[in-house]
UniProtKB/TrEMBL annotation:
<comment type="subunit">
    <text>Heterodimer of LeuC and LeuD.</text>
</comment>
<dbReference type="InterPro" id="IPR015928">
    <property type="entry name" value="Aconitase/3IPM_dehydase_swvl"/>
</dbReference>
<dbReference type="InterPro" id="IPR000573">
    <property type="entry name" value="AconitaseA/IPMdHydase_ssu_swvl"/>
</dbReference>
<keyword id="KW-0100">Branched-chain amino acid biosynthesis</keyword>
<dbReference type="InterPro" id="IPR011827">
    <property type="entry name" value="LeuD_type2/HacB/DmdB"/>
</dbReference>
<comment type="function">
    <text>Catalyzes the isomerization between 2-isopropylmalate and 3-isopropylmalate, via the formation of 2-isopropylmaleate.</text>
</comment>
<protein>
    <recommendedName>
        <fullName>3-isopropylmalate dehydratase small subunit</fullName>
        <ecNumber>4.2.1.33</ecNumber>
    </recommendedName>
</protein>
<keyword id="KW-0432">Leucine biosynthesis</keyword>
<comment type="similarity">
    <text>Belongs to the LeuD family. LeuD type 2 subfamily.</text>
</comment>
<keyword id="KW-0028">Amino-acid biosynthesis</keyword>
<keyword id="KW-0456">Lyase</keyword>
<dbReference type="InterPro" id="IPR050075">
    <property type="entry name" value="LeuD"/>
</dbReference>
<comment type="pathway">
    <text>Amino-acid biosynthesis; L-leucine biosynthesis; L-leucine from 3-methyl-2-oxobutanoate: step 2/4.</text>
</comment>
<feature type="domain" description="Aconitase A/isopropylmalate dehydratase small subunit swivel">
    <location>
        <begin position="51"/>
        <end position="103"/>
    </location>
</feature>
<dbReference type="Pfam" id="PF00694">
    <property type="entry name" value="Aconitase_C"/>
</dbReference>
Amino acid sequence: MATNWIFQGRCWKFGDNIPTDALTPTAVMFKSPKEMAAFVLETLNPDFPKQVRPGDILVAGRNFGCSSGRALATKALQATGIGAVVAEQFSRTFYRNCLEIGLPLLEATGVHALVNDGDEVRVDIKTATLENLTTGKRLQGAPPSQFLLGMLQAGGLIPLLKSGRFPGSATR
C-alpha cells in the first residue's frame, strides 16, 4: 500500500518504443516475478537487473510498454524494487497494468530530455512533478486522477475493491 508519493533515486533512462518483451523475455515467462526481476531489461541495459536499487526511477520516452501487453512485465518490473516509472507516454495496456498492481507511474512530456542515465532524480506522483537533483531542473507532468491515486494508494485494483473505498465516487 503506497502512503508515500515521493520517490528518489538513480535514473535509469530508456528510449522510445520499449516493448514488454524487453521487460520480460519469453524464456523467463514461467518464473515468479522475483525470479523474472533478474532479467528485466537486460537486453537493453545488462546492468539494470544487476544494479537497480529499491526506490530508483525508470525514465523512458514514448510508447513505453508497447507490443504484447504482457501483464507479468509490470510485476517483474515491480519486483526489481523500482520506485516509479516516468515516461513521455505509456502504452495504454501497460499503463493500466501498472495501476492495477499499484506500481507508481507518471506521464511527463519532456522528461526524456530532462534526465541522463545515472542522474539523481525525485518524483512526486501526487503532484506530478519530477526534479533532476543532479542538474536542478524541474518538470511538471500530468497528475493522475483522484481515482487512480486511490488505486495506487490501495496497492492496486484488487486491494481497492476489497477496501470498498472508491475515490472520486459519489456513492461512497
